[in-house]
Structures are given as structure tokens and as C-alpha cells.
Amino acid sequence: MNILLASISGYFDSLAEIPYMFKKAGCTVDIFCGEESWLRSNKFHDHWIEIEGTHDQFAAKLFEVVEQNPDKYAWILLLDDATVKVMNDRITSEDLFKKFMPLTKMENRELLSSKLGLSVLCEKYNILTPKFLNFSTIINKKTIVEKLQFPILLKEDFSCGGVGIQKCDDETLLDECIGRVVVRENLVVQEYIDGEDVGLEALFHDGKLVMYNAAEILTYMYNRFSFTTRRNYYQNERIEAILRKMGESFGLNGFASIQFIYHPVRDQYYLVEVDCRTNLWMPYSRFTPQNFTDGIKFILYGTPIKPSKKPIGHKTEVLIFDRDIRRCVKHRDYIGLLKWIVNWKGYWKYIPFYDLKLFKRIFMKQVNDFRHKLT
After folding, report:
1. What is the mean pLDDT of residues 64-86?
2. Percent share of the chain, pLDDT over 70
3. How far apart (Å, rounded) are the C-alpha atoms in residues 59 and 110?
4. What is the percentage of the chain residues whose pLDDT exceeds 90?
5. Residues in Cβ contact with 87 at an 8 Å cutoff, skipping those fewer than 6 apart
6. What average pLDDT does this structure show over 3-31?
7. Which whole-number Å values give the CA distances from 218 to 80, 229, 237, 276, 315, in the listed order?
8. What DSSP designation does 225 have?
9. Which CATH architecture has domain 198-319?
């Protein structure tokens, strides 16, 4: 099967190992990206379609490639939020929407790369999410104080990696926090849930859940709004039921990076994020009972997915080599660094020695980071 992986964001390292998943599933992998994109930093793609220029040029070229080869690609994946947004903003026909976008229901397109869209759709389909307001429609600060209890979160509608999110602890700080907001259009003002973060990757097909991995977060790069470096993966039947409802309600059709917050006192899982694209953790599912390569085989070839031999609740620790090393250095976590040095619990298996092209770019990135710290 031929598949096409497209990205307009060259700086995202999360793209680098995505071709590996599809190549292991037996696919022919074409990539559509710029010369410096991390999507090229691997040996597991078969053909590179080069693209540079504006967002309009990117979209026009992608439309052209697919129109010239209408039956070539069994699956077209938009790999990052910026690419999803670029294409979502430019597609007007339902046929094109279903061909390119990770949803089957065009009426729910506000979900794509929009935090406000997620909150609105959760309310529409009765999926539990924190209480929220759209700042664009609020008359004054009094409305926020009346409708929500502090602390609250201010979340810019289109942002990722924890950027564009800030916590406001009480009413006296509200004006100051609002003043720091860069983009106020569709700013989400949301109840802050003090609970346990659950990171999650899932794969859907035509609104049906194919597989997922939920995770307890062990370490963050900076704070709980930033990206993570160590996780404990497990399966959870309650979360699985929510995912099935989400898939059918939203019309999810592809990969999704999802976050819940579990409130232990209320015993409730709150849905706080759904990004309809791949992320850095998905290729590392090969170290967990639910391998997304098996899910790809199921969708493309109908290959049955073998049930996990691990019991519900069993946890598997997984780390991202590059990010965790950076975290250890930044926070002077010498014990964490020592674990990598001595291959504690087999940590070295998370180093991408299987792809020397990728390893070289990661190594050079680390070297450059250290140089900047020393100058």
C-alpha cells in the first residue's frame, strides 16, 4: 500500500520516526515536506516530494499531487497541527475533506486545531470537559468571575506544546494574565482541574476505535503544560469507553493525540485535548502491548490485531531519549543521567540506533544545544 505523509512544519522532531511505523507495516512511504523537515531525517521513506513556500503554495501543491494520482495513496496523513489547520482552512468540498482530513464528519471540523472547537463539541455530545467560556463573547471580567471558579486557565485557540496556556490563580491576577495573551480571538477561559494528567495516543477508523495507549506522566520538560519525557503506559476500560464515544460522536478517522485529567475526589475523567494527528510517542508503542503498526496493518490489510497478553492496569515505562536527556541536563537530574549511562532497565533500547540517519541528527542537535548553553 502507498501512503503519503505531509507536513508543513520542519521544526517538529516528532515527525522523524512516523515513517518507521508505516514501513514496518509493509507500506511504501512518500513524504511531502521541506528540505529541513524532520520528516526527512530517517531512512524509512521511499520518495520525497519537496515543497517550499507559503501556506497557499503548500496546499495547492498537495492538492495537485493527489489529483494527478487519485488512486495512488491508500492513506494521506497530515502530521502536525499547522498542516491540519492549513488544509482545513482551504478545503470546501466534502469529498476532499474525507480524502485529506482525519474526520469523517465535516460538520465537526471545528475540532481540528481549535481548543474552543473541542470544548464546544464536548458540550454538544455530552462528553465531560472542564467548564469553559469563549473570551470573545464575554461582556466583561465579571462574567468570568460569576461563571467559573478560580483558578482558571487561559488557552489560546491555536497553540501546541504548552505554549499559549497560562494559569490564573485568582481574580486579582486576571487583568495581568489577559494582558499576556498574544491572540485573544476564541480564547478559551476554562476551569482548572486539579488532578492527574493522562497522556494518550489513539487510532480510529471511520469513527471506530482501533487501539489506544493511555499513560501516567512521570516527567515533564518544564511544567505540566509542557511536553513529557517519561511515561507509564497502560490500558483502562473506563477511558476506552470514553474513546469509543468520542470516535463515533466526532467522526474520528486516523491518529489522535489526546489528554484527560482524572479528578480522584470526583472520580471523573475530563477530556482536555484532542489533536487529530500523530505525535512523538506513537512509534514507541512498539515497546507497549498495543503497537500502532498492528493498527495500521488492520486498517490497510485487515490483519487481525492480537489481543494483549498484559492485564488491564499493567504499566510499561517508556522514555523519549532526546527529550529526557535534555530534561536531565536542564534540571540537573544526575540520577536520571546516570540511568541512561548504565542502561538502567534497558534504557538504551529507546535510543534510535536502528536508524543511523535519525541518530546522527539527534546527536548533532544535542551537541548544538550544549554549545548554546556554553556561549
Report:
1. 94
2. 97
3. 19
4. 71
5. 59, 62, 78, 100, 101
6. 94
7. 24, 8, 21, 24, 12
8. T
9. 2-Layer Sandwich (3.30)
Give 100's pLDDT tier (boundaries 50, 70, 90): very high
pLDDT at 247 (0 to 100):
98
Distance CA 39, CA 15 (A): 5
**Which residues neighbour 169 within 8 Å (Cβ) at sequence distance 6 or greater?**
150, 151
* DSSP β-bridge partners for residue 263: 268
Q: Please name every residue paired with 344 in a beta bridge, in sequence order, or none if there are none.
A: none
- Asked whether the beta carbons of 120 and 126 are under 8 A apart, the reply is no
> What are phi and psi for residue 361, nearest 5 degrees?
-70, -40
pLDDT of residue 256: 97
Q: Are 221 and 323 in contact (CB under 8 A)?
A: yes
Quick one: residue 53, left, alpha or beta (phi over 0 = left, psi -120 to 50 = alpha)?
Answer: left
Residues 6+ apart with CB under 8 A from 95: none
Cell of 221: 520538560
66 in Cβ contact with 335 (< 8 Å): no
Q: What is the pLDDT of residue 136?
A: 74
Vertex 347: Cα angle to 344 and 349 (nearest 5): 140
The CATH superfamily label for domain 2-101 reads: NAD(P)-binding Rossmann-like Domain (3.40.50.720)
Question: How confident is the model at residue 161, as a pLDDT?
Answer: 59
Q: pLDDT category, 373, cuts 50, 70, 90?
A: low
Distance between CA atoms of 122 and 14, rounded to whole angstroms?
27
Q: Kind of pairing, strands 188-191 and 196-205?
A: unpaired
Q: What is the Cα–Cα distance from 359 to 316, expressed in whole angstroms?
A: 24
**CATH number of the domain located at residue range(s) 131-191 in this protein:** 3.30.1490.20
Arithmetic mean of pLDDT over the chain: 91
- So where are the chain's domains? 2-101, 131-191, 198-319, 323-375
Q: How confident is the model at residue 162 (pLDDT cuts 50, 70, 90)?
A: low
